[in-house]
Amino acid sequence: AVDGCTDWSVDYLKYRVLQGEPVRLKCALFYGYIRANYSQAQSVGLSLMWYRSSGLGHSDFEEPISFDGTRMSKEEDAIWFRPADIQDAGLYSCVLRNSTYCMKVSMSLTVAENDTSLCYNSNMRRREKAELSKSKEILCPDIDDYVEPGKDPDITWYKECQPKQWRASVIQKRDILSIQEVKEDDTGNYTCEIQFGGFVVRRTTELAVTAHLADQAVLKYLGLKAKTYHTELKIADQAIKWLINGIVTLLSNCTELMTACKRSSFNALTPLTDKPPKILFPYENKISNMELQLDLLLSPSGELVQSAENHPEEKQGDS
């Protein structure tokens, strides 16, 4: 039925939805492939047909979709699932054609179940970072299809799937949750929820809080040339453990770190290189224990000859 078509393969936009939630799968031809909308295509005698692949591959046999008009329906340039089911996952192709013209593109739909006892699927979360003490906006994305035109969305925000009494500096505005000053305990999973025709639509963002511990700080060690460091570190607990020459030390800021380094055996280094020593730090958070360590390698004469990096290794944290 689709032989002889100009085939644009699979569109870059991937549809992902949780089981039991509605989703509108739009024919991508009208959103970047042709200079016409659905009404204009109809007016010149073009018909829009939908097919579904029998397998997961783009080249698998495709068969026309039989719409039941209730849970799964064809509406203008889109297919509506009210709601989506696990069995709906796969590739959907829309074909625009008449007797002399044919164009086709496929869209991928993933349907996933929530993780046990949670309101989201971990693999379908968006992931973002926020810098400690700075502002951060968390977006409730891709909700236009579930909001009445001209109206603001009625969104409820949750943290770790639980209702939360937000502090005064956390402000909700339309489809954004705005954190005016990020704190360490703002790390976590944020879920926005919209009511839509008897269903709910949810979007979850995992937020990691980071800090620039030595942002624009100039380290000066015993005549070594000054360098600027930007060290980013995930923060979740108050206590951060720094490893200085094999000794674990609790330090709260960069000034204390520099002082401790000057007290350490860095004093034995001779200023024969323009590379200042790099700082060693394992760190911990509430999710897992992580290590990132830069080891100073010294020659017998005490010269700094190179730095060897041990890449992060995740250890099972205490629960």
Automatic annotation (TrEMBL):
A GO BP term, please? negative regulation of exocytosis
Q: Which residues form the signal peptide?
A: none
Q: Which Pfam families match?
A: I-set
**What Gene Ontology cellular component terms go with this record?**
cytoplasm; endomembrane system
Keywords per UniProt: Cytoplasm, Disulfide bond, Glycoprotein, Hydrolase, Immunoglobulin domain, Membrane, NAD, Receptor, Repeat, Signal, Transmembrane, Transmembrane helix
- In what way does this protein cross or attach to the membrane? Single-pass type I membrane protein
Quick one: where is this thing mainly located? cytoplasm
Annotated ranges, domain Ig-like: 19-110, 138-208
Superkingdom in the source lineage: Eukaryota
Q: Where in the cell is it found?
A: Cytoplasm; Endomembrane system
* GO molecular function list: hydrolase activity
Q: What's this protein's function?
A: May regulate secretion and presynaptic differentiation through inhibition of the activity of N-type voltage-gated calcium channel. During presynaptic differentiation may regulate both synaptic vesicle accumulation in axon terminals and subsequent axon terminal remodeling.
Q: Which family does it belong to?
A: Belongs to the interleukin-1 receptor family.
According to UniProt, the name of this protein is: (spotted green pufferfish) hypothetical protein
> Native species of this protein?
Tetraodon nigroviridis
